[in-house]
Design goal:
The protein is mostly beta strands. The protein has one helix spanning about 105-110; strands spanning about 5, 10, 30, 50-55, 60-65, 95-100, 125, 130-135, 150, 160-170, 175-180, 185, 200, 205-210, 215-220. The radius of gyration is 45 Å and the shape is elongated. The termini are far apart.
């Protein structure tokens, strides 16, 4: 009985398909029963890519007939690179500020005996850096160093070293709290001061009165 040999070298008793691997057996592969070496594998070249000419702007090969370069967006039809619009500038605005003034009307309402009003004292504007701004008087011995320091001349004798606290909430609202001051913290034209630890919201144009004559007016960003 003649034995055929499939292309993979398997001896097969059938001469049309290999009974080992099922590969088709070419005519004339039948032999005398001796297995023969498989034919050498044929190396096929890799398929040619359809890359076109290089992009004149960045050198990336053009993908077929694609209009736009995949790397830089160059338009092969118009010969232009798409212009990206610059982002609109973000307006720069100042943060919250406060005007610190010597307030004669507030001083006269208090009528503190033995304290003279410091006339001809200019007001000043300070920043309110979040999240907290302390109001009081600096003291090395007491370890107080408030952001709004009212210890400079004219020294307001009614201001405690730790008098009040301004806090910017997560909702963007300023809150003022009295820290247990000796003479209280007043808001706007209210007759009664905040109690120790009491917190109230304040906004643009609100006045915080402390001490004998000091008024702090809040200003929202422009």
């Amino acid at each position: 009985m003649s034995i055929a040999v499939c292309p993979s070298g398997h001896p097969s008793e059938t001469d049309d398909y290999c009974d080992t691997c099922g590969a088709p057996i070419a005519a004339g592969s039948a032999g005398s029963g001796h297995a023969t070496s498989p034919p050498p594998a044929i190396a096929f070249p890799p398929p040619a890519t359809a890359a076109g000419p290089e992009c004149p702007n960045c050198g990336t090969p053009r993908a077929g007939s694609a209009r736009f370069c995949e790397d830089c967006g160059f338009d092969h039809e118009t010969g232009k690179v798409p212009a990206l619009a610059a982002p609109a500038p973000v307006p720069v605005t100042a943060g919250w500020t406060a005007t610190i003034a010597v307030d004669r009307e507030y001083f006269e309402d208090n009528a503190i005996e033995g304290v003279e009003f410091p006339a001809d004292t200019p007001s000043s504007v300070v920043a309110l850096p979040p999240p907290q701004v302390r109001i009081g008087r600096r003291s090395t011995s007491k370890g107080t160093d408030p952001e709004i320091d009212l210890s400079a001349a004219p020294l307001d004798p009614g201001v405690s070293h730790s008098h009040a606290l301004l806090t910017l909430s997560v909702d963007g609202v300023w809150l003022v709290s009295d820290l247990g001051s000796t003479n209280g913290t007043y808001l706007n034209d209210e007759a009664k001061p905040l109690t120790a630890g009491q917190t109230r919201s304040v906004g643009n144009g609100d006045n915080v009165h402390v001490g004998a004559w000091t008024t702090i007016t809040l200003h929202a960003p422009a």
